[in-house]
Amino acid sequence: MSMTEPAYLSRVTIDMLGGPQRLAHLPARSEPIEFGVHSEVAQHYGVSAEDFAPQPASLDYVVAAAGG
Predict the structure, then answer these.
(1) H or E element, residue 65
(2) Among 22, 29, 42, 45, whose Cα sits 20 to 30 Å from the Cα of 8?
């Protein structure tokens, strides 16, 4: 059995906003999703909450997508 055509092609675009801030445009969503850093992730990267408002990190979405 060979695969010649993908079953699904995800069409996602990312807007880099500066620092850790990004907007992800995902299928089936009319509004983009905000990504950034918070808590220990922000501390690891030396990002202050005064400079960038805390947002979910991309890692948070990966864990949620995997079911916890």
Answers:
(1) helix 58-65
(2) 22
CA-to-CA separations, 13 to 2, 29, 38, 53, 55, in angstroms, rounded: 29, 12, 22, 22, 18
In 7-56, DSSP assigns E strands to 13-18, 21-25, 33-35
Structure tokens at 36: 């950034």
Task: Give the predicted TM-score (pTM) of the model.
Answer: 0.78
Residue written as token pair 């979405």: 61
Report whether 3 contacts 17 (CB < 8 A): no
| pLDDT tens-digit readout, 23-55 | 999 999 999 999 999 999 999 999 999 999 999
Whole-angstrom CA distances from 2 to 5, 9, 10, 60, 63 are: 9, 18, 21, 34, 31
